Amino acid sequence: MLKLNKLYSEPEVFEPIPFEEGLNLILGETTEGIDKTNGVGKSLAIEFISFALLKRHSDCRVSLIPREDLSDETVVCLDFVLNGYEITSRRSIKDHDSPILIINGITKNYSNLSDAIDHLSSLMFRSFEFEKTPTFRQMLGPLIREEGSEFKSIINCFDTNKRIPPDYTPHLFLLGIEPHPYAEAKKLHGEMENISKARNKMEENIVTLTGKNISESKADLNELENQVRRIQADIDKLENIEGFELIRDEIIELENKLERERSKQALLKSELSKIKLFKGDNYIDGEEVADLYNQFKDGLGDLIKRQLDEVSEFKRKIDEFQRNLFEERKVSIEQELKEFDLIISNLNKLYSEKVALLDQQGVLVSLKQTIAIHEKKIEEFSALSSFIQKHTDYDSEYKGKKRDRESEIYLLESFVKNSERVVNSFQNTILEMHDYVFGNRRSSFEIEVSKRKEILKFELRTDSDGSHSINREKVFLYDFALLTNEHTSKNHPGLLIHDNIFDVDQDTLIKSINFIGENISMLSRKQYILTINSDKFSETDLNSLNISLHQYSRATYTKESRFLKKQYQELSAKR
């Protein structure tokens, strides 16, 4: 059982809120001349409860209060009872990750939040024999429904902006269904997704390497293996010849020399071809220039011709000198080429003699080339073989995880089937509430187990499903039934908090409150904490209620008397 006693702070930044067994109301009220009840601090009070119950600081609205409006030195305190243990939670704004728990008078300091949560989890579930139980904070998910959840889903109970994936673990626990197979199947699905990503990456690597899909690449791998084997066989034949090691090194050295000499020969041939492009004289004809110019200007053309003749004569001398240089270089290159031809010819002859000693039925073309090809083929084979083997391993692992997941799902399905009596009883509690509020029993609740990603589906159908008002009422029916049903209440901690859930049509609001009032005895040894604005009720509505709101009020806030006693602007939430 989890029972809250008092919420307070040190130093006092808000009025302490005492809680009692049964119904506890936190009211927003109007004052004379001010008819607004929103923003007075009802939801913030619930946030402080969650903060004291070790909700992560970054997920709390407490973290959005400016420091000038809430000092870092403030310690939020909550007195509560957990399965017979008297506990005080002391958590400062500054050191929010290092809470203090005073348990039966013994103070325990925690260096991190998870250790404190683990401790409370052990106290909450110490008497249960389930193989898998929720953590303390997991369990509080569906027990403290904050306004940010918008009450759109009976399963998704967190702020819709957080996009937290649904977690059925606490819901299964409350219904008496062993959550372990669900948790395992969920974990296995995450592992399968990671394996699938890795397997797809291997496929991309194989396509990049071969340009082919996995099936075609496996055929290429077989051919590569065959090529490597054949080349290795050729090299093995040569290695069996006496003196192979010595001759092999000589042949490779000859091949290297041939490459160097042929490279030098190619450079000389290139230079010679450029020299041959030089064709000799390209002079300007002075006579033609003079005749053209004399047509336009008498006598001036003759003068220009004499100047051009002088220039041309100088150019002829330069060209003659250049031509002599080119001719000398040409003769030199041709001589060098003859020498290279002789060197290469001798090297080829020597190479042929050496190769003849090793050649086995014509299989060897170039020892150096053969070895290089062999090494390249081995690299290609190793890379492709590694990728394909890794892909095969991932595929095998994925299938194994899939089989394990299906096995867990089948086990979960059997547990759900075995809990049919509890589920039917729970459904009947919902039907009774539905009949009271809506005047009919057109409602149903069922649990579906499947191999899909979500594994589970809790489907609660009500009359006129789909509207904003009905969705909120659906959550109320579900949560209140879990709290009060004779079977589900055995696993229930006995605490339920709804922050502004009754933003519904007036008839549904009145009947829901009256259902609680008429069945107030069902809240014996339990707590239902509800925030609500009193301006939702007209004088006629208040007269139609079977309970007095102020009788169950534990705190009342107005625009003039807010929870934090001041008005402030929240900081922007970090996404």
List keywords for this structure.
575 residues, alpha/beta, elongated, 5-stranded parallel β-sheet
List the SSEs and their pairings.
Elements: E1 2-10, E2 17-18, E3 22-28, H1 42-52, E4 75-82, E5 85-92, E6 100-103, E7 106-109, H2 113-124, H3 136-140, E8 144-145, H4 169-174, H5 180-210, H6 214-239, H7 244-276, H8 286-294, H9 300-358, H10 367-418, H11 420-438, E9 444-449, E10 456-461, H12 468-484, E11 495-499, H13 506-518, E12 527-533, H14 539-544, E13 553-557
Parallel strand pairs: 3-12, 3-13, 8-11, 11-12
Antiparallel strand pairs: 1-2, 1-4, 4-5, 5-6, 6-7, 9-10
Helix pairs in contact: 5-10, 6-10, 7-9, 8-9, 11-12, 11-13
What is this structure, in a nutshell?
With 575 residues, this protein is of the alpha/beta class. The chain has 14 helices and 13 strands. Helix 11 crosses helix 13.
Task: Describe what you observe in this structure.
The chain is α/β, with parallel strands linked by helices and 575 residues long. Helices cover 52% and strands 13% of the residues. The strands form three sheets. It has a six-stranded antiparallel beta sheet with strand order 2-1-4-5-6-7. Strand 9 (444-449) and strand 10 form a beta hairpin. Residues 240-244 and 360-366 have low confidence and may be disordered.
